[in-house]
Amino acid sequence: MMIVTTTPDISGYQVTEYLGIVAGEAVMGVNMFRDLGASLRNVFGGRSAGYEDEMQRAREEVISEMMQRAEELGANAVVGASLGYETFEGMIMTVASGTAVRIRRA
């Protein structure tokens, strides 16, 4: 099981080797009906479930990709993970990055 955390260390574990920075990226389109719904919600208030669903899907995808790249380096954890989002021209760009490490129980 791969542990992914935003913290620089993991309670109860010792980092034995730093293997490098890993990242996962995804650029996903949002359809015009969701855009229209989001625009109406911006005017009348409320949350945009369409965008929230897309962001959740993108987040899961980039974290999974980051974990896969860490495993390819021989890591069993990723520390210092962070997520970033950017929107442009009807697209949502999502990035997850962190440091791939090997850990063992302390």
Automatic annotation (TrEMBL):
It comes from the Bacteria. Belongs to the UPF0145 family. This is UPF0145 protein QUW28_06135. HAMAP family: UPF0145. Coiled coil: none annotated. It comes from Enorma phocaeensis. InterPro entries: UPF0145_dom_sf (IPR035439), UPF0145_YbjQ-like (IPR002765).
